[in-house]
Each structure stands twice: as C-alpha cells, then as structure tokens.
Amino acid sequence: MELIFEIIFEVYVELMMYIVPEEKASSKKYRTIVILAATVILLGVFALFIWGCVLISGYNNKLGIIPILIAIVISIIQIIAGFILRDKKSKK
Questions:
Q1: Which DSSP letter does residue 60 get?
Q2: Which residues contact 4 (CB under 8 A, 6 or more apart)?
C-alpha cells in the first residue's frame, strides 16, 4: 500500500509541476508549495474515496457513490490538465 501511495504521490507532484512556469519550477519555494498542494489534494481525494466506501459498505447508503465520483473526477481532471500542460510545454 505504501508503494502505491508513493507512486500516486509522485504522479500528483509531476502533474502539479506542469502548472508552475518553467523559470519558477527550479525555485525551492515554488517546489515546496507544489508538493504541499499535491499532498493536500491527494489526501482529499483519498478521504473522499474512503468516505464514499464507508457510506456504501458500512451504512448501506447508496449516496456514498457521490464522494467516490467526486474523487474520480478530481483525479481525471488533474491528469488531463497535466497532459495538456505537458504538451504545451513540449511544443515551445
């Protein structure tokens, strides 16, 4: 589980680094901010997913699908945004 968390965290950090302009990407201050933001977002996505699973399995509440879908949508949006920004940077 720790390996999966580490891989997902690294992917989030890489996707977040695409948002930072290239001249600021090497700055320690911006890198720290990006890592902090990636950590908060990753923990939020995991919390939403776990909350949804607990609602569904523990309380038999079908509305648990809503937090799970929100977590999935946030992840997909971040991945797509990272690929789009990477494409834009590589074309320059």
A1: -
A2: none
